[in-house]
Amino acid sequence: MCSSHNQLVPKVATIKKITEETSSGDVKTFYVEFDKPEERAEFKNMPGQCAMISVLGVGESMISITSSPTRPDPLEFSIKKMGKVTSKLHDMSVGSKIGIRGPYGNNFPVDEWRGKDLVFIGGGIGLAPLRSVINYCIDKKENYGSISIIYGSRSPADLCFKEELFDNWPNLEGVEVHLTVDKVEEGERWDKSVGFVPQYLEQISPSPNNSIAITCGPPIMIKYVLESLEKMKFEDEQIITTLELKMQCGVGYCGRCNIGDKYVCIDGPVFSYKQIKEMPQEF
Amino acid sequence: MNKLLRSNVSCLLKKLSEHTEIYASTEEDGVCILAKLDNYEEWTMNYVRTANSVKDVFFPQNEEIMKYKDASSDLKIEAPKPFKERIAFGVRPCDAAAMLLLDDVFLKGEFYDSYYKERREKGTIITIACEKPDQHCFCTSFDLSPGATEGSDIVLYPTEDFFLVVEVTEKGKKLIKDNAELFEDIGAKPEIVDSYKNMRTVLGDVCIPNDLNEKLKGEFDNSYWKKIARRCLGCGNCTFVCPTCHCFAVCDVARGCDGKRARTWDSCKFQDFFLMAGDHNPRPTQIERTRQRFMHKLNYFKEKYDKYQCIGCGRCVEKCPVGVHIADVITHMKEEL
Amino acid sequence: MSVKFKPNIICFACNWCSYTGADMAGTSRMKYPATIKIIRVPCSGRVNPTFIMKAYQKGADGVLIAGCHPGDCHYNSGNYFAKRRFLLATRFMNYIGIDAKRLRMEWISAAEGVKFARVMAEFSETISELGPNWRAREEV
Amino acid sequence: MMTMTEKMREQVKELFVNNEIKLFIGFEKGFTKFSRIPAFAENYDEAKKMIIDEFETPFLAKYLIRELEEVAAGIVEKSERVAILTRGCDYLGIRRLIVDNIILRENIVIVGIPCDGLIDVKKANKLLGEEAREITIDEENVIAKGKTENKIISKAEVVLDRCRQCIMCEPKESDIMLAEKTANVKKNKDYSKIEEIEKMSAKERYEFWSRQFERCIRCFACRDACTACNCRKCIFDITEPEMLEKTVATSEQFMFHFIRAFHVAGRCSACGECERVCPVDIPLGLLNGKLRKDIEFLFNVEEAGIPSEIEPLGEFKLDDPDEW
Q: Which residue of B has its CA nearest to A84?
């Protein structure tokens, strides 16, 4: 064997369970377990970190870990069918093998949020990176203030993690869930709000004092969410987001994912809005 | 200091080749390249710089990361076999210094690359000082010189009929001790070494201000990038010949359900370098890519590793079909800001 | 006992003449070596020289292009273009070192089942004499 | 008598003044001594620093693709046209783009200059024995001044290889001609190097070419510099199906050079730009030359280098040779 294990060599893992998140089937959650338990022990992930999923013969792609470290096994990845690797993943069945390496990237600064109210604003598949930190904060609810989750998607069928959105999170004490959809086809039952996430956020208008806003979703939604958060007097340090760029090695020396002198795979993907403002607008 | 006769060089290489791979400068169809050598008479000296740099020896263009067997049923992954010892002979002082920059990237970060690390540990660099730099060289602008010793294990200073041998690292001393019969101790000869060290390059000093990276910070939408990018053809020539460029792509080579994962050089000048799934490309035209190339070399690398990512070897300048010149960028930015 | 080398031959057969010629050879119980793998193409003009080179890269020892006789191509001029391309391709491949005998072009009409079987046997024989083609073959 | 440079500046001034062009593409001094690099002038004072002399210059035709990209569909009015400094070999490149319907003849203004061979500085340095500090060129010979001694070399000795086989000394149809036509001296076609390779045995040929291709670092400079390579999306950039893997193995190199050479078969005008830009000096001209030689011999095309409406591989004749 080579002198020591190289960072770019993945570890073998098996897909234990696959659940479809959206009825259209373009988002699936994969429950994955390492083949070797000692390799799982080395894989200590914090909320917000990502892992490199390899489909052997096709390639690799960086996917955020959507399960919280407080509920360790199995690791969950919610993946939207976008490119070569993700479409091949969507054709895979339970029991097939993939490669995993990581965890990479920095994590949400959960320690700095002690005693603060948390506002999670998600759009479409953007809820996947947030879900790991939401469940983490729920499991350590005593350290944090109120948690409000504002989440929207194109249509009721496209909502991800329906089971948690409707039955699990709303019944917890100190947690509010606000859902909205862009449009509702007739014949679909939908009693909650209809409209885009940024406008819906301004309706709810959470108070900015002693609170942190965490947002993730399609770039166009993030742009307007940041504007409305500024209107509601949220400071730049109070707004946190994750950037998903093209990452090739995940360990900071393939020169692929830099915005200015920051490497998204090492200095990110979690950035505060203050950091994003300082960066050149090239993402 | 020792002396090595020019005639002894090929028997030194032959002796070393028993247990190490020899990469030496040879001439092949009129082109001087650093390549694996088996006939030790063929090493040559009449070149200013080899077409490829010593980066090829330690960070090759095409390298296997791992092999895998029956991809989705019961997957087995196998790392490559350990590498053999290797010696790079006939390297120029600027290329040897470039290896220190690559060391910062691949070894100093939070994660290190074990293949590169192993090759570097098992590798020795024997440098030949430059007798006559040409119009493209500007190594003196990065406080190097035609006789610099940074990054090399042994430096040979050529004189009429022998090389003055200067050991720089432990590896170098050990190599000379093992082959002592080919070397002759002739005491200190600093004047030969100094004659190389304070030799000025034809292009002279481009004298880069130490705070150029600070100045470049705000220059993201400077119109100068558009002016140079208009000339650039978008080929990967400058990044592949550059000894300090380290960007790579990881790709899978499938043969049925077995195959291997390989790492190959990639260039920020190519159009699919930053292309993401869903056809989103934040650097669609040559303007962004040219800016990325020079900002990485003169700003981002300095922010991260406190050194400019250039050693003034002049390869990108000599090989660029349309004359995009990094010293031109530096002098322009220096005057304008 | 040295196992006789079994060549790996790719035949691009034009759908209207040569492929039906192959069927004809099959239905009239003619034998031709099993070392030949037929790829049906709409016309011999569809065969791009890159396909030929790709075949050698992926492990073929010989490539044979079978098309209609000049004049009775279903698309009128497909085989004329194929002829020009083939003339250039053989010389160019020979020039870069791949033996020209490993590429052959034949006009086989739908009625010439006999000729199809003969040509295949002949070609398979010449290729097994030449032996495996390691040049420009991909490394595993 | 005004030098070529002054004539050019005067013409450009006229073109800009009566608003006939939006851009003029020419040459200016590069950062290193004898290098000439492309220059783009959107108004007259930007064109002041442009020069014309006999040092080796890059090709400009390929820039027309990008500069005229958004107007490729229709004919633009006069003020939106692009003027380009054109020698004979440049003209072949422009002709190639026009024949391939990439740009329209009406959208460009060809400013022609005659040329009987450009100077190769590397050859002059080799003859001088060191890097020349000063090189002056007059009618027949070149004076190279080194540190110690000067040398007078006849122009024929230091002219570029490609100029020795030049098939067009000045643009055939140009809107403006800066100097009167020179004698269109016909240079003989020299396929000797190609015949030399043909005489080798198959094994030697394979070793020769795999040694050349092994040096290739797959930087695509030959494709990016060639006017015959003007596809919207190049086959090497398409990943589905992947004709060429990113790994640089010997078989992949053969595939790359085979596909590139065959895609310019019958369309290559022997301008020699691919050889000039190759960082490891692979003799690509011998590949393209072999195909051109066969086309001229097999399909008796008189001069395969000059772009014609129908390409040799785009047509056929009933009496094409039958035996192979």
A: B277
Question: Which value does ipTM take for this structure?
Answer: 0.91
N-to-C CA span, chain B = 47
Question: Quick check: C87 and D255 CB within 8 A?
Answer: no
What are the chain D neighbours of B203 within 8 Å (beta carbons)?
32
Spatial distance between the Cα atoms of B268 and B263, rounded to a whole number of angstroms: 16
Chains C and D form CB pairs within 8 A to the count of 95
Cα angle vertex D186, ends D180, D188, to 5°?
155
| Spatial CA neighbour of B101 closest among B150, B49, B140 | B150
Best of D235, D262, D313 to mutate (most C CBs within 10 Å, chain C):
D262
Q: Closest by alpha carbon to B247, among B283, B285, B216, B210?
A: B283
**Chain B residues 269-308 with CB within 8 Å of chain D:** 270-272
Which CATH class for the A117-242 domain?
A: alpha beta
Are the beta carbons of A59 and B278 separated by less than 8 Å?
no
pLDDT at residue D71 above 60? Answer: no
Delimit the domains of chain D by residue range: 4-118+159-177, 121-157, 192-314
Alpha-carbon separation of residue D110 from A93, D15, D24 (angstroms):
62, 12, 10
Residue range D126-185, pLDDT digits in tens: 888 888 888 888 878 888 888 888 888 888 888 888 888 888 888 888 888 888 766 655
Same fold, A11-104 and A117-242: no
Tell me yes or no: is domain A11-104 CATH 3.40.50.2000: no
CB contact under 8 A, D58 and B262: no
Domain boundaries, given as residue ranges, for chain A: 11-104, 117-242
Pairing of strands C9-14, C62-67: parallel
SS3 call for B230: helix
Contact B317 D31 (CB under 8 A): yes
Q: Is B in contact with A (3 or more beta carbon pairs below 8 Å)?
A: yes
Domain ranges of chain B: 2-64+81-197, 212-336
